[in-house]
Structures
1.
Amino acid sequence: MVIPEFSRRRVLATGALGAVAALLPPTVPAMADEADDLAHRLMGPFVAKEGKVHLKIKEVAESGANEPVGVVVDSPMTPADHVRAIHILAEGNPSPVVASWYLTPRSGRAEVNFRMRLAKSQVVRAYAVTSDGSVWVARQDVKVAIGGCGG
């Protein structure tokens, strides 16, 4: 068995890298992966496309307690081409699935407006599932000055 030589410089460099890594905040992709898993459990397997969905929410919320949100989906809302569902996920909330609406061509427009609580700064996602089975998404980073759900 060969034992590697450790120089003082190598030991110090390795220790410094470990200390820097310990000080970094948890990675956002881990939270995003959890949100993706949750979205797939909610809507089944899909590959989301960008476009068609327009998410209206402030980039900076003074208080996450009662934030106005609007979602509009570009759709003719005909029997052949309409939005079947709109789902809102806030990946940093204790309950990430905020709301779901199920639509038909008789809904007239694929548009919802509501208020939501945000526990902390996070990414809010709006998904639209269309009659042909495609899924469209819009994302918005929202910074919350004072948490609405968790203090």
Note: The chain has a mean pLDDT of 82.
2.
Amino acid sequence: MRPMRLLVKFNLILILVFGAGMAAAGYFARSFLQQTAHDQVLQQARLMMSSAGAMRTYTTKQVGPLLEQHQAQVNTFLAQTVPAYAATEAFNYLHSDYPDYAYKEATLNPTNLRDRAVDWEADVIQIFRTHPDQKEFSGERDTPAGRSLFLAKPITAAAPCLECHDTWRRAPAAMIRIYGKDNGFDWKMGDTVGAQMISVPMAVPLAIADRAFRTLMLSLGGVALVTLLLLDLAIVMIVIRPVTRLSKAADQISKGDLNVPELPAQGSDEISQLAQSFNRMYLSLAKAIRMLESQ
């Protein structure tokens, strides 16, 4: 029973050591994984933002010129010629694969009032207006559905924009009929008029981090269990078995049995030295007893 109690003590010590190590690793790993997931989601948002920007450029340079003549012939306004419309529609298709991501071209003075910037979006746009060299801004905000992560890039009025947004008198008549002449005009070349916004709930990066954290802790737990079993096996083979043989031999000698075989004492470690010392003590004791018996 004593060797088993010794093994239990070793196991308790090892479990405490492994537990403390896993707790420390988990504490630092959780923050690291959350930051990594946060950066991963932002990088995905940047790729989506770049895709929307590419769609705006494609519409301006290729789609718009092709539709201008047709738009004049049918005497109606084709929203497909508007870069913001094209980018939003393209993102709506992408939204089916990334339902947690939302895209908006928030504008201070839009033609379509659905694009008007709300308070927090207007604050972000003001940051770009105050710092014209800043090309990106990201942050977190509280929403009724929970905390949200957002990425924004400025929208600057360029020459193609002013074809519709300079004054209402220069704007296409078909557009005026649809949207009126009260909104979306008096833009100035080079002014920051809005921002491309991509928002995603913080639950998304946190869920990614939690999955990675569970995988990490399960892996650490599995490695710790295998390590513990291997250490137990090593302790049994190197310590428990020799100590058990030594204990049995000492018990037999204490009961007067002098026919106990010598213990194997190969090697130079502490257990082997203990076995060698025990063998010398046993031989000396046996010799002394025999000398007393012969007198």
Note: The longest strand covers residues 146-156.
